[in-house]
Structure prediction request, 311 residues.
Amino acid sequence: MKRTRSDLLPLARALEVIGDPWSFLIVQEAFFGVRRFEAFQRNLGISRKTLADRLNRLQERGLLSKVIYEARPPRYEYRLTPSSRDTYAYALCLMRWGNEWQADAQGPPVVLHHKPCGHPLTPLAVCGACAMELRAADMEISPSTVTVPLASTNTPVRSSSRPELYTAGRPSSISRAVAVIGDRWGFFVLWLSLAGITRFDQFHEILGVARTVLAARLDSLIDLGLFERRPYQERPPRYDYCLTEKGRALCPALLAMFDWSVRWHEHGAFTASIHVLHRPCGSGLRMKVVCEHCREVVQARDVEVGAQRSW
Ligand SMILES: [Zn+2]
Ligand SMILES: [Zn+2]
Prediction:
């Protein structure tokens, strides 16, 4: 396989695989025990064509294995693989963010319980080296983790222009979070902000995206409360684009995505330890998601899904 520059960039690779909202939501259904086409379709309210396409992609990329369960007529089911099971930390981080920032007055739509300690589960992202909670302000992220002509990353998947589609299925903070972040540009802009980028021209130069597309994406991130515009020059008016507290709170989810990609993809000479540092201990990124109550690493098998309500 031809190695492109994008192979060096974990976030770009992760986005190809789990950044597509439908693909990611399909993997979430699989975590809930769903294995068959009809059940995925029913639970997600997704079209058959889109579902078939995403199941194929997920298989090609090693996130689902297709297993025959009936010979005549041949029928298949889809199962999680080691790499898709390992996206659990990312899902937990997104869920926590959705619960805190997107839930309504009635609280989260689903409560999870951590069986080993018996408490409701609040996932907490911590540094694998020093065990401190990972916060945006403590991370040193090199913008070079994204420097890529993004057009070269292969087979981009078009996200729906109607994000509400993603929340039609199972009530979940994850689907809400996915709908908010939107497409790959949303992820990249958020990531670059964590790396300290604030100026429109810098985003533009690094991402190589059309100015109109970038402007539209920043506007929608501002509308969603993830970014704010701060004037730094009056004439002509110029602004810094800064993350709000709500935007910074997405940091653990983005780190989890990055960390997952580093573990599961070949990145050539790329080493995460140089590009993403935890300042308090000086270690390269290695993250763990633990239960806030008992501080044990959260495993999918240890989590019980409580009652769900619609919202
Ligand atoms: Zn640390
Ligand atoms: Zn616990």
Notes: Residues 114, 116-117, 119, 291, 293-294, 296 surround zinc ion (ligand 2) (CB under 6 Å). The chain has one domain: 88-308.
